[in-house]
Request: fold
Amino acid sequence: QVQLVESGGGSVQAGGSLRLSCAASGYTISINCMGWSRQAPGKEREGVAIINPKDGNTYYADSVKGRFTISQDNAKNTVYLQMSSLKPGDTAMYYCVAAEGSGCGTERTFPYWGQGTQVTVSS
Reply:
């Protein structure tokens, strides 16, 4: 089992920045795909930024490329999401997600989810 705990988030004006953190615990050695998914009211879930902790490869949704950066600290089993140039359209609940097995990317199905942290961007 894997547990994910997010921190960060909050409210910011358009153009601002926020940083999210996700600490993983439990059987983390099995994780080969980890990152962030978001869901806004009335919209489908969207994988926005994913990283393979084993090789460092990163994957981004087109909507956040050039604005969001995912990184990791393997010693702390923690993944970060630096969000810059935020837009009102980025407003959503952001969830830390993780998966085992083969394959990694924003379209991956993730069995492990954190409790979520709200990001609100005002115009």
In short: The two ends are 40 Å apart (CA to CA). The chain has a mean pLDDT of 95. The CA atoms of residues 38 and 46 lie 5 Å apart. The chain is about 0% helix and 55% strand.
